TrEMBL record:
Protein name: Enoyl-CoA hydratase/isomerase family protein
One Pfam family this sequence matches: ECH_1
Keywords, sorted A to Z: Isomerase
Species this chain originates from: Streptomyces aquilus
Superkingdom, taxonomy of origin: Bacteria
Highest classification ranks of the organism: Bacteria, Bacillati, Actinomycetota, Actinomycetes, Kitasatosporales
Amino acid sequence: MGAGAAMSLRVSADHDTGVAVVTLDRPHRLNAIDLELRDQLVAAWRALRFDDSVRAVVLTGSGERAFCTGIDRDTEVPQPNSPYMADDPLLRVGPKSNDLWKPVIAAVRGMACGGAFYLLGESEFVVADPDATFFDPHTTYGMVSAYESVLMAQRMPYGEVARMMLMGTAERMSARRAYEVGLVSELTAPGEALARATEAAAVIAAQPAAGVQGTVRALWAAREAALAAGFAQAPHLISLGNLPDDRQAELFSARRPGFRTR
């Protein structure tokens, strides 16, 4: 991160409770992740590894409209001219990808879509406001939902993941439906997701840290084999299935505003 770069991430720690709150802070862009925010997330996860006073983390987004809407469409990501060396800019954006084995609870308000699933997929559980919605726009814009699909396949029944990923922007999963299928562990009263997630994090942070972190590592170990197998296929599927960038841009510009929420 270069000198003078604007901070798009806020990290606050309560050393009495042992809870840190990590907030995506680009509400004007619906908390979409550009390369600077990606780098700030990586730095934050790595810094939290060394802060023994922090024993649990809450991840949220600023504003009321969105938790995170994935990669910022204005972000240019240079790619090697080879299908064997594709560079996914969000692949290392989550806590587990940065070797953080402290529990992370996501507090979701508003939209969570596309690349947001890299973050939700590496959180221990999700607490959501009733206005939260979940969807994946990839197919609508001529792209393969690969890493996102693999991560969400570990969190929801196959049919629910398939429907979300294949329907694109035409349909959004409501917070209620997400709770019913297990993506969301708690559905709160309006405006209370962050508070409830922070309360849960404080309870976890009060437990002996070594036991908690070992449990997080054991839980993730149960998922690693499936994730590794799916991720191994992802670059090739993306290379084969994605439309050229200019065609994706055309589809994005022509997108229809209507959608159904179920």
